[in-house]
Amino acid sequence: MKLFITRDVSPSDVCFLIRDELGRDKYTAVMKRRKRSMRGVVNNIVRLNILDENKNLVARLRQLPVAGVNSFTLKTDKTAATLVVLMTNNMVQCRFYGNNWRILGDVISKNFSIVDVDNAQICNHIKHPLGCELEIADAQNELICLMTALCVNMINTVDKREVQVV
Predict the structure, then answer these.
(1) What domain count does the chain have?
(2) What is the pLDDT of residues 137-165, one digit of tens each?
């Protein structure tokens, strides 16, 4: 199964549109930003609600700001996982908690695969000029793979602040 992810740059709260192979809208990712203060430190917590074509909430993604690390919590009604992304000068390291998956490939260029402990491919993410293509091997993993792709697409890999997304 293939999904196509594009950014929505309209003034609405929708930040990603997800379409199926036939070009029909399948999911939308709606952003909710919240500032939270803990002991005088203000943290910007980013939440994405994943809605299906009927506008029903099917999954939630939360980005927790930690110094030097992007930590994402991925939740559906059946599964939960955490993706921790550490960016260094020359590479990005990704680690899943809550499942036995790992990311292979180049996360910075947004061309990577997600594999399990047996190296069986779970999904493949390919960057295109107008968006990203996500090829998922098993429909059971669709939402977690989609949320992982959205996490990677939310990571700013551009040095110029004025052209960074999200």
Answers:
(1) 1
(2) 998 999 999 999 998 888 765 444 444 44
Q: What share of the chain is helix, strand, coil (3-state, %, to 5)?
A: 10, 55, 30
Contact assessment for residue 125 and residue 112, using Cβ atoms and an 8 Å cutoff: yes
| In-domain check, residue 161 | no
What is the domain-level CATH number for residue 140? 2.40.160
Task: Give per-residue pLDDT as tens, 98-135.
Answer: 888 999 988 888 899 999 989 899 999 999 988 899 99
Judge contact between 19 and 25, C-beta under 8 A.
yes
Pair 97, 108: CB distance under 8 Å: no
Q: Are 60 and 50 in contact (CB under 8 A)?
A: yes
What pTM, to 2 d.p., does this model score? 0.84
Structural domain contains residue 94: yes
Compute the distance between CA of residue 35 and CA of residue 89 in angstroms, rounded to an integer. Answer: 28
Domain of residue 100 covers 2-156
